[in-house]
Amino acid sequence: MNHHPRSAFGAAPSMGRHQRTGEAGSAVSAWSDPRSIALALFVAVLAALPLLPLPEFWITQLNYIGLYAIVSLGLVLLTGVGGLTSFGQAAFVGIGAYASAYLTTTYGASPWLGLLLGLALTAAVALVLGWVTLRMSGHYLPLATIAWCLALYYTMGNLDALGKYDGLLGVPAIEIGDFSFREGRRIYYLIWGTALVAALAIIHLLDSRPGRVMRALNANRGGGVTMPEAMGASTFRYKVVMFLTAALLASLSGWLFAHLQRTVNPSPFGLKLGIEYLFMAVVGGVGSVWGAFTGAAVVKLIEDQLQVLLPRLLGTSGNYEMIVFGVMLVMVLKFAPKGLWPLFDALLPARRRPRDWAGAPPMEQRPKPKRGEVLLDVRELRKAFGGLVAVNDVSFTIRAGEIVGLIGPNGAGKSTTFGLISGLLPLTSGDVSLRGERISGLPSREVAQRGLSRTFQHAKLVPEMTVLENVALGGYLRSHSGTLRAMLRLDRAEERRALKEAEAQLQRIGLGEQMHELAGNLALGPQRLVEIARSLAGDPSLLLLDEPAAGLRHKEKQALAAVLRQLKASGLSLLLVEHDMDFVMSLTDRIVVMEFGTKLIEGTPAEVQASPAVRAAYLGTEH
Ligand code: ADP
Ligand code: MG
Questions:
Q1: Over the stretch 546-603, which tens digit does the pLDDT of each residue have?
Q2: Residue with the nearest Cα to atom 6 of ligand 1?
Q3: Ligand 1 mean position to 414 CA, how many Å?
Q4: What is the pLDDT of residue 330?
Q5: Closest C-alpha among 337, 194, 322, 336 to residue 256
Q6: For residues 351 and 372, what is the distance between their CA atoms, to the nearest angstrom?
Q7: pTM
């Protein structure tokens, strides 16, 4: 993992520095946290600006920056956190703007009703579009966003009811009772209030149960769904939620925009703006909430300067600022690939997360199987990759309280067997049952729900999350807070239980000291241990470990063996794939040996060691 470690919500990008995420647990600690003080100062300055004798021009600028920031915030979540690129956010801005403009001008309805209509319409469109496009991978999603942005733009421009390309005039101002947000200095508070509340909601979301899944989606580029699925999360559902959230933020910005401008026409909702929103997020720092604000401010201010300056310099008029933006984007990507915000952010002290979970009640545990009961029953398991039979009718059982080893030379089919049992790979034929219930054919998240947890041969941690957060992700199925609860900070009691459990599991494997470290900063050995702790946080009845000792030093191996023995003593059952013979022999009750996809022999460590067939298999094929 060579990712530069950084937090998804704007914490220190510096190596080795203890990064402490999250909000303060109490008012007292909030006020002793330099980051909270910085935020309070920022809010105070923002609130004071319209009261000062600033020219109207600057108030207008600030209003637009706020509107852009709201849209970019959605992109921070969607693109920065989720890794889903959208060029089409401007279309959702358009839906929010047009819905309210149409309702208020044609029917004389209240802008507030317009807001509801806009959000409902946006949600409907986003759900349909998300349902269709979020299953696409690679380049298809960005292409699809371009397509829908164009389609919605021409729809807005061609509908008679929406005034075609002339748009709708005479959009009323937003009012609360007799108070009108007609003036720029008043709607300013509505815009910036919305932007800041949205920012806080996203910050809260990222530091929560659903947020950990969202941040995991982008962890291993291209393969970011396997691990969260194995932790029990439906990654598709979270992608839809992120997409919907980003669309609703864009729509909200569109509503404010329509009632600020008091007129709408299609031009601000076209692909050019769609690209510009993404541009803002990337330049500002798509990995952090405040990057959205930085990007919106920088782009808006530079754009205005350029629009005045460039025609003068060049002697002709035109949209030359886009060319300069192109160059700017390349420079930012080259010299500050994480965007501009992290440069400011590095100047702020790291956030402290108070350890406020010590007194939380423990999480509930699933009923434990009785010692000796058949836990896992694998029958005639078979997997063919085209002509290659990687697993050839393999059968074995694991009883509660046992440690079973699965060994064999490289390419014998061990990892494939793991994938089949844990629901990662569809099987060609055969049957797997866990505690008497058939699990073959179930997706990995449902296998996890039934009490089977696994680690990966190549550790899959989220490098920019802390060790503690990574482990807490493993407890996903044991808590229930959803996106809205998390945004509103109603999940804290449950979250404290989850973090307490995560810390306890880290203590158990001896990594309690490192809980605030970014996972990406850990060496390979400790990363494997964190994976085990993450699995344990899910309270499994059976733990599948794929080569846990690989890459560990001798001392670390001994520590790992001690941990595994202790897990066994506590009633947990383990299936262990391992290359290190001594490690397997000293730990396991029984060993299944595979070669070329077939089960060669099954027996006690002594029997396996004495077997000539096993010796031949290892001597014949291994390095
Ligand atoms: P082990 O973990 O025992 O080293 P694997 O289960 O990774 O072995 O692989 C078993 C065999 O299946 C190997 O020959 C490997 O090349 C093949 N294999 C594994 N995964 C795939 C796949 N996704 N597609 C095609 N062949 C695969
Ligand atoms: Mg393997």
A1: 998 888 888 888 888 999 999 998 889 999 998 778 888 889 999 999 999 999 999 9
A2: 413
A3: 8
A4: 87
A5: 194
A6: 48
A7: 0.90
Clarify whether residues 310 and 281 are in a common domain. Answer: yes
CA dihedral of 226, 228, 231, 237, whole degrees rounded to 10: -110
Q: Are 278 and 86 in contact (CB under 8 A)?
A: yes
Instruction: Verify that 272 and 403 share a domain, yes or no.
Output: no
b or e along 363-401 (b: 16 or more beta carbons within 10 Å of the residue's beta carbon)? beeeeebeeeeebbbbeebbbeeeeebbbbebebbbbbb
Residues 6 or more apart whose CB falls under 8 angstroms from that of 582 comprise none
What residues line ligand 1, using a CB cutoff of 6 Å?
385, 388, 390, 408, 410-416
pLDDT band per the 50, 70, 90 thresholds, residue 21: very low
Which residue segment(s) compose the domain that 498 sits in? 461-539
The confidence band for 13, taking pLDDT boundaries of 50, 70 and 90, is: very low
Residue 17, pLDDT above cutoff 80: no
Q: What is the pLDDT of residues 95-136, one digit of tens each?
A: 999 999 999 999 999 999 999 999 999 999 999 999 988 887
Q: Are residues 516 and 395 in the same domain?
A: no
Do residue 88 and residue 158 come from a single domain?
A: yes
Residues 574 and 475 in one domain: no
459-487 average pLDDT score: 94
CATH code, domain carrying 258: 1.10.3470
Q: Are 278 and 67 in contact (CB under 8 A)?
A: no
Task: Tell me which of 382, 383, 416, 584 to substitute to probe ligand 1's pocket, judged by most ligand atoms within 8 Å of the beta carbon.
Answer: 416
Neighbours of 355 (CB within 10 A): 15
Residue to mutate (ligand 1; options 388, 420, 618; most atoms within 8 A of CB): 388
- Residue 359 is assigned to a structural domain of this protein: no
- Indicate the average pLDDT of the chain: 88
- Atom of ligand 1 minimally distant from the CA of 425: 23
Count the residues in the chain.
Answer: 623
**Structure tokens of 49?**
């600006």
Q: Is residue 562 in some structural domain?
A: yes
Q: Which ligand is nearest to the CA of 416?
A: 1
